[in-house]
Amino acid sequence: MAEVEDQGRKLSEESTDESEEEDTEEEPKLKYERLTNGVTEVLQKDAASCMTVHDKFLALGTHFGKVYLLDIQGNVTQKFEISLVKINQISLDESGDHVGICSEDGKVQVFGLYTREGFHENFDCPIKVVALHPQFSKSNNKQFVTGGNKLLLYERNWLNRWKTSVLHEGEGNITNVKWRANLIAWANNLGVKIYDIGSKQRITNVLRDNTSLRPDMYPCSLCWKNNTTLIIGWGSSVKICVVKERDPTEIRDLPSRYVEIVSAFETEFFISGLAPLADQLVTLYYVKENSEHMEEEFRTRPRLDIIQPLAEGCEEISSDALTVRNFQENQCRDYRLEHSEGESLFYIISPKDIVVAKERDQDDHIDWLLEKKKYEEALMAAEISFKNIKRHDVQKIGMAYINHLVERGDYDAAARKCQKVLGKNMDLWENEVYRFKTIGQLKAISQYLPRGDLRLRPAIYEMILHEFLKTDYEGFATLIREWPGELYNNMAIVQAVNEHLKKDPTNSMLLTTLAELYTYDQRYDRALEIYLKLRHKDVYQLIHKHNLFSSIKDKIVLLMDFDKEKAVDMLLDNEDKISMDKVVEELKDRPELLHVYLHKLFKRDHHKGQKYHERQISLYAEFDRPNLLPFLRESMHCPLEKALEICQQRHFVEETVFLLSRMGNCRRALQMIMEELADVDKAIEFAKEQDDRELWEDLISYSIDKPPFITGLLNNIGTHVDPILLIHRIKEGMEIPNLRDSLVKILQDYNLQILLREGCKKILVADSLSLLQRMHRTQKRGVRVDENICESCHTPILPSDTAQAFGVVVFHCRHKFHKECLPSPGNVSLL
């Protein structure tokens, strides 16, 4: 038995077509075990000559003429003394109730397993084969065939007597026969024949290929794949034949069926047996001693291959060399291959040994993966087929995988697998954590620990945090951010951090982490102090999230120093919690910060901070002059005298001009523009804004002796003041730059005004005509009235005799009158 058990470990050495390295990675397709129990004792004293397989039991024939019925485990359930010589073949019907047996001394017995009544006959020649009709138990005529030097068909007639018919003779001994449905296939020295029992016709003759081989030493193997497909193996040749129905128009004198060979190919070794496996073939090979392709230690060992038949060849799927007992003494004829269709079991029969091959199940697949250390594939296979595996446990495979990764030093991968493998098993989790601690790899497993509904003991998390705190501040901070505060004793960790800060009080990473711990512990004031000290960006989020506005009333300057924009936005958004007056009071000693706050307040609402507008004048003048003039323009609460005083003190001309014009002193404002700014364009623009004729006179008077100013006036005055007034006042002989261009522009502006007026007139006339036509159409339109009653006399509007002339007046308000009921036109007042 040890030899067969060792076979799985030697499979990598048994292939003749692939290298040793490739074979080690190829998973076997079949697994093997020796049929033991009662079989072992039988074969110690006797030798197996044949066997047939039923789904319920096995029937074994021996060289000493005995037949044993065995269960699937090999235990003997019944024993029949048939002969003193070799049993050649055993046949069972589909029900397994009847058995047919033939022996080398010419004995043939067909009987029921539950009664010995049946057919018992002795022939004068060896009977090599026997086959029962598949439905022998149910049929009335109880057909079966035997084969010696001829093939005989036996059946019972209506008198309950056995009738014999010769189906074939004259071509040597019948060496094999297989009956499927209505088709009987048999082999003799020349080839294979198929007989249709229904039509009583022989439908084919498949000739033997290699006639140099002795038929008795290399017998033919037959196997029905289904009711119409026959597989023939003889020597090293394989043929797959399909029985088909012939076209009725072609029948004439031909059988109603014919055989088509759909695949034919040669194999490397001699065939001892065939069996179907889905669309593939299981072949039992006999390997001769002089084979040049096999290593010395594997010669003469039988091989069991799985091949994929093709039209003109085959593809080898797997190949296993079998170490059966006494294989060195066996010949090709000593091996047989039988199969159980129901369970895909294959029995390799040799004189002193019976080996059972079966398809590897998912448990076997996982065994192979684990043996090859392919743990990830094994785990995946177990997870996919967890309902079908019987010998393996998904978690145990996962644990083996984790152990393998740890041994290999891939700690991160091992820790990552813990999350999937350990699941909700708290004991396993804690064991793994302590193991990772022992090997100094707590960091690897930290990020995969349970942290949701499933949690470990707080001590586990604290142990990991302490480990990080000793060696990795950044990793410690990451865990504090990622782990919920409920996982561990927060106060214990806070105390540990404070101990480390005593050694390094300015460590920003530790301070930030300590602030987060205080936040988890709802000690927000302590966290706020640290954030402000560090000028941390999360300080505003902390204030908003936990409503800490009462705690920052005396820290406004700190917040503003950190980030003015965010601080001001926060203060303005929460004015109901921190009043404007409180903010101004806190910022009174920091005018530059006060200006930022009041400026944003003014931008949001021009009226809300009106009592601080006077203070803002000096703040704008000091820190933000570009926004001073817009502030003066938009503010309705700014004291103009105070603003004018400040602007004059600082010599802010533009702001002074604006204030003078707003206070009504436009002449002084214009004078400042002309004298201090010397900007004629700005002066003209100012005059346009005020639209005061006296200002234009002042502007002209001031500019009359300044040629550049005159040019500016000529270019811009045309649409506001008659240019003639300016031209008449120009001194004769004065040189004016670009005078001609300025005069041309005046004329062009005049022409443009004339064209615009004419265009507007045309548009006005067209619109008036269009509206008049629309009114006319509207008034001509009929008016629907709902009541036929005069509003004056209250009688029907329409007379009973419509042939008479009548007059009706309907107003747009839908009131109706007889024409004669209306007052005379002179007495009607139109509203």
UniProtKB/TrEMBL annotation:
Residues 788-826 form the Vps41 C-terminal RING finger domain. GO terms for biological process: cellular response to starvation; endosomal vesicle fusion; macroautophagy; protein targeting to vacuole. It is found in: Cytoplasm, Cytosol; Early endosome membrane; Endosome membrane; Late endosome membrane. Residues 30-359 form the Vps41 beta-propeller domain. Plays a role in vesicle-mediated protein trafficking to lysosomal compartments including the endocytic membrane transport pathways. Residues 1-13 have a biased composition (Basic and acidic residues). GO terms for cellular component: clathrin-coated vesicle; cytosol; early endosome membrane; Golgi apparatus; HOPS complex; late endosome membrane; lysosomal membrane. GO terms for molecular function: zinc ion binding. Belongs to the VPS41 family. Keywords: Autophagy, Cytoplasm, Cytoplasmic vesicle, Endosome, Golgi apparatus, Lysosome, Membrane, Metal-binding, Protein transport, Transport, Zinc, Zinc-finger. Its main location: cytoplasm. It comes from Cyprinus carpio carpio. Pfam families: Beta-prop_Vps41, TPR_Vps41, zf-RING_Vps41. Residues 1-30 are annotated as: Disordered. It is a peripheral membrane protein. Residues 14-26 have a biased composition (Acidic residues). This is Vacuolar protein sorting-associated protein 41 homolog. CHCR repeats lie at residues 568-712. InterPro entries: Beta-prop_Vps41 (IPR057780), Clathrin_H-chain/VPS_repeat (IPR000547), TPR-like_helical_dom_sf (IPR011990), Vps41 (IPR016902), Vps41/Vps8 (IPR045111), WD40/YVTN_repeat-like_dom_sf (IPR015943), WD40_repeat_dom_sf (IPR036322), Znf_RING_Vps41 (IPR057779).
